[in-house]
Amino acid sequence: MNDKETAREQEFMKLLQETLKQARRRGGIISREEVAENFENLSLDKEQLDQVEAYLKAHKITVGVTSGNEEDLPEEERDFLESYMEMLAAVPRLSDSVLEAVEISAMAGEPSAQKELIEQMLGNVVDIAKLYTGQGVSVEELVGAGNEALVTGVKLLGHLEKPEEVPGELGRRIMDSMEDLIAAMLDEKAFDREMEDEVNLVADKAKELAELLGRKVTPLELAGEGDVTSEQIADAIRLTGGRIEDLEQTT
């Protein structure tokens, strides 16, 4: 191996360790775009970048794909991020050695250290939230869910063996909270679509029968046709506040 190849390998190992450290300090997460940017000067090909990603994953680092660009966020969400980050900028950053001491104390259950650790990790919550934008949940809601998970998580570090495990443990809790929020939102939207489909079905069947009879129809008459059930009709009436044009309301 010549001097040029040796220097390149040394630079690669240096960047690899810096990337690992960066991800750990940010809660055990890093985006694939950030990994590529870190190694940009070495012009790594896809296979080499995949090897870097595999190395990070072997060290319990989550390599994510940025779901959304901050510039693509609605104006009110960008304004929230700007003001929130300005607030966080006022929090003094601890050196690695001091932060490690705080992590050890937090693991031991020291309340003041747990509070300090929360403050140091708030920026990580924002970084993680950016990975989940563009999935139907506002960045403010993502940050709120992440902060709640962080506050809870710092009290549950006693099972860890080493302080370097703390950022990854909290990062996973933060990510889980955001994923749960997105999943709940998707479930709610699916339920809303299902209810909308049911209302539309009842309205369509009421219209068909009303056109046949030349008048509005009663829920009992509509149910008697067998296309929709009494329960579906009752749900549709409740969801629309009784505003189904071709359905006569009875008391």
Describe what is shown at a glance:
With 251 residues, the chain is mostly helical. Helix content is 68%, strand content 2%. It contains ten helices and two strands, in the order H-E-H-H-E-H-H-H-H-H-H-H.
Protein model, in words:
The chain is mostly helical. Helix 6 packs across helix 8 and helix 8 crosses helix 10. It is elongated and about 90 Å long. 25% of the residues are buried.
Q: Indicate the percent of residues in helices.
A: 55-70%
- Tell me the number of strands: 2
> Which sequence of strands runs across the widest sheet?
1-2
The termini sit apart by 91 Å
Structural class: mainly alpha
Q: Please provide the ordered H/E string of secondary-structure elements.
A: HEHHEHHHHHHH
Radius of gyration: 27 Å
Look at the structure and give the mean pLDDT.
88
Gross geometry:
elongated
Low-confidence stretches: none
Count of discrete alpha- or pi-helical segments spanning 4 or more residues: 10
Strand content: under 5%
Give the biggest beta sheet. Answer: 2 strands, parallel
